[in-house]
Design a protein that fits this description.
This protein has about 290 residues and is an alpha/beta fold. The protein has a single domain (about 25-285), classed as TIM Barrel. It has nine helices and eight strands. Strands 1-2-3-4-5-6-7-8 form an eight-stranded parallel β-barrel, surrounded by six helices. This is Peptidase U32.
Length: about 290
Amino acid sequence: MHRTRDFLRSLGLPGGDLAELPSSTKRFPDGAQYRVEIPSVEGPEALEAVYSEADARGITVDRVSQGSGGMLLTQRELADIVAFERARGIEVCLFSRPVAAWDTGAASLTGPVAAQARGTEQLVHVLEDIRRTTEAGIRSVLVTDLGVLTVAARMRAEGELPGDLKFKVSVQMGLANPASIRLAEQAGATTYNVPTDLSLAQLAAIRAAIDIPLDIYVEAPDDLGGFVRHFEIAEIVRVAAPVYLKFGLRNAPNIYPSGTHLTPTAVALSRERVRRAEIGLELLDRYSAKAAG
């Protein structure tokens, strides 16, 4: 086994999960160790609710993400979201849809297939969704499929997509070790959302191998495990910085694909996620008051 561990080290990867958890020296460009993300912000009304709640609670939300995709937003709604994003100086990340779970194949309803682009036509559709979204002014998209990421990054490099477009990789891509997540980084990922159940030692090993920020659910939706890790936030920031702290919500309905028929629910869930963020940041301050955000 030691020969395999030594070979991993020769590739610049850790030889195992780190027993001693070093403090990460990596940071966001502005020197921050962490930022706050509110996920599942479905539509303009939910977006406005997040920031009215954040303002009332005196917390900073740096990024919001959305799961239903730009394809289920009208041009007017996209324009409203872009205007709000620019006025607030925030990042809005829209899911790139469709994926296999929304397709007609029976296998697409099960396991890891569901989050992938199924067949060439769906690959085209996802890339077209990214193109349409960026034409509306969005500069951050969420991807689940490695092929989509690779081609979209190539399109960005060749001017088919904006040069400042960010690729946030979804937790549904499922890569869970330093070597595989490094592949996503090399393919063009701007940030990577790790699986929700990774230990601090596993997170530290991944951080040692890559430079891009990690997105980490400190509270995960039920369909992603339902874990509530608020007391670990200080250590997550210490070993995994730079990190986006993602405040999902346990015991909440999955409302993808969303729409106006679910707006009241989406707004209520968004407000509670911000409340959860306030709790998490209070605990971070309690146990690591010097953490830079």
